[in-house]
Give the backbone structure.
Amino acid sequence: MDRIPILKMGHFLLVTIQVDMYDRLALNLENDLINAVQAHESKGVLIDISAVSIVDSFMGRIIGNIATMSKIMDAQTVVVGMQPAVAITLVELGLPLAGVYTALNVEKGMELLQQKITEEAEFDIGEAEEDDDQPE
Amino acid sequence: MMISLNKETLKIVSEQDVVLFRQRLKEYASKIGMSLLNQTKLITASSELVRNILVYARQGEVIIEVVTDRLQTGVRVTFKDQGPGIADIPKAMQDGFSTNKSLGLGLPGAKRLVNYFDIQSTPGNGTTVTIIRWKR
Amino acid sequence: MANKTSEVLSKRKNDVLEAWIKNQIQDPTLREDLMSNDELHTQSDELLNSFIQAVRSGNYSDISTQEYYPVIEILNSLSITRAYAGFTPRETAVYVLSLKKAIVQVLQDELKADQNTLIEEIIRISDLLDSLSLVTLEAFIKGREEVILRQTSEINEISTPVIRVWEGILALPIIGTLDSERTQIIMENLLQEIVNTGSSIAILDISGVPTVDTLVAQHLIKTVNATRLMGAECIISGIRPEIAQTIVHLGIDLTGVQTKSSMASALRSAFTKQQMVVTKAKAKQ
């Protein structure tokens, strides 16, 4: 059975899809990726689809699923490098992937993930500090 | 008046056939010089329709044709199956309607992506969907 | 009744062709600047051959039948090429009608003895050629329509310039109405430019759009969504007060779309997003 390799880069997972997707493959990816998020306690998932020429409603749903599932497991998902023709087709299809973060390329996606994680960390620290500020 | 210039029939039994079908379709579309965006729309719409064959009828066949009506050239794809058929076509054409927990974008989405869309179905007797995407 | 005309035509084809070409050359409107005599000769010969072939069937009234396909095919391509070359529809119609004159001349000569048949044949042949000249007219219009379509798409192409206003910031002023075809072109150009320049912000200025109705708003939202899918942000600027009013009155939902009243304020917000500050240079002391 074909599988798409998942690379671990520090706190992040990187998936580069370079083959023609079919449904079984997409389902496997969803499964493997969610397991990998748990195994590595990843904070973010980058899915590079710059080599993908077709994203239909099934594939779109899987991407949405991955984003929602990782979020529940405290990881952010960024889809990077979508082709213009794919973006227009998805919009016409009626699937704007509203809940998914996007970036132009892997580099910018990485920045975005870093930023999201820092924001969250600051938020956590902020809350913690507030607790500390109790009058003595 | 529509003239068919080139014709090929493919059997659809498994997901591997879908991959092959999409490749053949791409060959036909790029051979007539279809723009990348229109190719993407055609293949995405076809991907939705061929999935319907596999999900609802298990198997069927697709016919890829290069057609011309004197003014313009395009690709016509016909999807035929002997599956359960569709009882209420107007309902099946609505966004978000699905009988199997999918997004329900397949039929209406596919229709938005092509220039011509026709669906014929009788319950118990199978479904035939015909689409055309012009070159430009 | 025997197919007299067909007989005569087959027998005296060369005379007809000669008379026809002579008629055309004598015609003061002949456009020698647009077509050489040789070309005219070949074209006329080809048309006459297929015409004689078609008439042989004995069918003079219905040109939608198979016998006439070749004739109509030739007339269509002839009209369209003439339309491109700059002939007037009148000139193309006269071309077919002058064939009538040539045939009538030859018929008169052949059927001198039988006046009744002559009149009948002339009526039949002239009806037939009249409908064929109408075919050229229709094809001519079609040819012109194609020219117009091509120009429309060219205008669409050049009327959607994507401007790189700053590093990472693109602007696209839209002038005129937005229909679905134009939206496609705008999306294609904009998204491609985003890829080419690696820009992360696109400003869509709609101050040149006369009205924003539900459909136009849908097209704008599509463009915003497609831009977002690519990983870039889209700001819509140039919202005039009356446009804001119609948007609210029509109940169009623009939540999730960043809007600014002017290009300047959109640019300012884009700078802020890029963490850039524009300051006045300090005056030299």
Notes: The first helix of chain C runs from residue 4 to 11. The beta strands of chain C are 163-166, 169-175, 201-208, 233-237, 258-259. Residues 4-154 of chain C form a domain with the Globin-like fold (CATH 1.10.490). The interface with chain A takes residues 184, 187-188, 191-192, 194-195, 198, 200, 222, 225-232, 256 of chain C (CB under 8 Å).
